[in-house]
Amino acid sequence: MKINIVRRFIQILILILFILGNLKILNILEGNLSSSILFGGLGLSDPYAVLQIYLATFSVSATAISGALLVLFFYSIIASRAFCSWVCPVNLITDFAYFFRKKFNYAKDTRVIRLPKNFRYYFLGLSLILSFVLSTPAFEQISFVGVIQRGIIFGNVMAIGVAFFIFAFDAFILERGICSNICPLGAFYSLAGKFAFVRVEHTVENCTRCMDCKKVCPEKQVLNIVGKKNAFIKSECISCGRCIDICKHDALNFSIRHNKEN
Amino acid sequence: MSRREILKKGIKGASLALAGGFIWSIATKSESKILLRPPGALKEEIFNAKCIKCGLCVEACPYNTLKLASFKDDIAIGTPYFTPREIPCYMCEDIPCTAICPTGALDVDLVSTDEKLDIKKMQVGVAVLDMQNCVAYWGIQCDACYRACPLIDEAIYLEYRRNDRTAKHAFLLPIVDPNFCTGCGKCERACITEKAAIFVLPRKIALGSVGDNYIKGWEKGADKRLENVDTSLKFKKSKAVDYLNDGEF
After folding, report:
1. Which of A201, B52, B66, B113 is the most buried (most CB within 10 A)?
2. Considering the domain boundaries, does residue B188 fall inside one?
3. Does residue B1 lie within any of the structural domains?
4. Are B19 and A165 in contact (CB under 8 A)?
């Protein structure tokens, strides 16, 4: 089965479980992506949010810290940045915006603004510094990820406006701008996932250099080794599996990282 | 330019204008509301810093009292609040909203006595009564807020006074005692006037503060407040001169 279909299914399933939890129909996931309770007992928290709260107040309860460590552990050991493509609801909007952009050929328009890929890392650093200086979790106060996910889970009409803004930005202003240039949460997870085990592996013997993978990849820079050497993809990869779906020659696959390369 | 091009440009322009307009309307909103936090909330600034915006308190509340703030609510987006006129706090004994908070932004210690949950300690706010628009102060018999109060005769009590206008009726005047009022808002919910004549405000906004100048001489131990008092005189030398020269005389 196509990985993309499985991914969409999981992405939507998580949101539905949250909605059902919120409506007190099904008690699997309660809360939202910032902090939640799984199966009525296991606390999970967004490590980036908890880090900001810690920098702002220097006191965070044990529940939040253990929940954040669990999540951090999962993404940094298992799958790098899988949050971005398998969980985050903003991904649904930005993927649609990208589809729209390609379908109606907005990609060829003159570029409105240019942002370096590294911008998100500066933004991440700035948000942490500001959290400390202003004694308030800086990015959480303006987090579009937060607005969108809460809007979906708790049903807030105002979130549609923000969703539309994100769509318009990605579709007409900067290609994949929100997720791969701006979002500090994605930057956080790509740093956290540096040593994650489940990675996309490239087998150079199978590669025909058709570059289909580069056409669909949301973070093209991670595929710079395609056609050159056997290697595992860098942690900026959001593990969406698009390249695996499209590769007809079995050159790309999810795999457990080990040290055979080079 | 082809028709297709014009359509494309039109969609792009309209979308950007809509999205920009939405952001603009958020940025320039001017309405300011005073909102109440759930039981056990820390001081506003620390609460804002500690709240992770997970909405677990919202889900824990069995009465759907709590809501998460949106842009229009003029407080940090995603933080919980409630509007007593719509749904008040029913002061659950097990305080599920406070107990579930993962970050401690809702602090169980603030609503406990001797490590046991005690909802009567909650200080969400304090009820304030508008005597002008309370029909009980007109002489009409209404004790809706008094009856609704979970701490009846403590947080709200009735004062009886002779109605001189009719010379044969009594006023039953509701009076709030801030020492007991938890700010649950059931009185505000119950109030019969079109816009509630009794309403809950955060304690910081509703209550005054005496300072060091006055002591209740008839209360035992009230003079303890004087122990660390700052007795240096704080006169503004120019004040008297300004007063005389201000042109009022």
Report:
1. B52
2. yes
3. no
4. yes
Architecture of the domain delimited by A197-256? 2-Layer Sandwich (3.30)
For testing the chain B interface, which of A17, A140, A160, A174 should be mutated: the one with the most B CBs within 10 Å? Answer: A140
Contact assignment for B103 to A60 by CB distance below 8 Å: yes
Is B9 an 8 Å CB contact of chain A?
no
Q: Give the integer Cα–Cα distance in Å for B182 and B121.
A: 7
The total of structural domains in chain B comes to 2
- The residue extents of the domains of chain A are 3-191, 197-256
Q: Are residues B36 and B117 in the same domain?
A: yes
d(CA B229, CA B214): 11
Degrees, nearest 5: CA angle B101-A22-A33: 60
Q: Is the pLDDT of residue A224 over 90?
A: no
Contact A203, A243 (CB under 8 A): no
Q: Which domain holds residue B151?
A: 125-208
| Predicted pLDDT at A262 | 41
**CB distance from B49 to chain A under 8 Å?**
yes
pLDDT in tens, A73-110: 888 888 888 888 888 999 999 989 888 888 887 777 66
Q: What's the token pair of residue A7?
A: 């991914």
Rounded (to 5) percent helix, strand, coil in chain B: 35, 15, 50
Count of A-B CB contacts under 8 Å: 122
Contact B187, B198 (CB under 8 A): yes
Q: Are strands A42-45 and A252-256 parallel, antiparallel or unpaired?
A: unpaired
Tell me what percent of chain A is helix, strand and coil, each rounded to the nearest 5. 60, 10, 35
Closest CA of chain A from B71, distance in Å: 7
Query: Cα separation of B199 and B69, whole Å?
Result: 20
**% of residues, chain A, pLDDT over 70:** 97
Q: Do A106 and B76 touch (CB under 8 A)?
A: no
**Predicted ipTM > 0.90:** no
Instruction: Supply the pLDDT for residue B177.
Output: 92
The pLDDT tens digits of the residues spanning B174-185 come to 999 999 999 999
Place A202 in a pLDDT band, splitting at 50, 70 and 90.
Answer: confident
Residues B77 and A146 sit within 8 Å (Cβ to Cβ): yes
What pLDDT was estimated at residue B228?
76
In a domain, B198, yes or no: yes
Q: Provide the token pair at B203.
A: 């304690």
DSSP A39-91: TTTEEEE-HHHHHHHHHHHS---HHHHHHHHHHHHIIIIIBTTHIIIII-THH
